[in-house]
Amino acid sequence: LMIYLTLFLAHQIVRPLNRFVEYTRRIARGDFSPIQPAKRYKDEFSRLAIAINWMLDQLQKNQELYIQSRKMAAIGTLTSGIAHELNNPLNNICITTESLLDELEDLPENEKKKRLQDIYAQAERASGTVRNLLDFTRVDQPSFVHVSVHELLSSALRLTKHEMELSNVELKYLPAESGLLVQGDFGQLQQVFLNLIINAIQAMPRGGVLSISVGKEDPDQVRIDIADTGVGIPQAVISDIFDPFFTTKEKGTGLGLSISYSIIRKHGGKILVNSQINHGSTFSVYLAKSSGKRRPE
To answer: Would the pTM count as exceeding 0.90?
Structure first.
């Protein structure tokens, strides 16, 4: 009788505990649906379930408030960034135009032409900011084809070759296998690697080494590393570098990395960064590997 009672009591205690263990796992997975009663009468476990349901309700409310505050912060950052990037060239246009109107009759022709060129350059700067913003907000889905990794990187390197020579940057690139393919949109992926390579060059104002390597750590993914020996990124801001309009440069819209991050996410991949001050940065791009034959362009 004692053994039977012991087993009965143990079963009555262990079964609800196992049930609550499963509840906690469900909550950890993000499922905040309330716990339904398992018994007709109230006991200690019923009171525990009521307390957990109240906690889930508060968690949901706090999560919604957090998401809303993050949205408002993002809108604020976006608005201030647009205002800053457009206000500077517009101010320069106004000042130059005003001075040109005041001194129009007394200025020599070459000075008039110079000031008009300044106005045109500032208008182009504002137009470039708008184009970058449109690229950032574009919702077009990429057109997936089989893309050669070697051709993708080679095309980006050809476009940045002159800038590397001017910046005294040495390139170390072991060409990827000719048959290594990824699934993606060639034009969008080219834009990503152009952004990463240009950022790496600009991070080495006194010259340095740009290293590009291709690896296959996972049979279903290709990893492409863009590494520089530049100034590095402070750890305090490294989590913000993919936010729109965030930049550590004196000049720049801060949209390049945001656009690149968005493109890679649309491709089902990811971008990771590892950086140390005065030792350089490494951006690692992961893309889905393709085993098919390349389609004609």
So the answer is: no
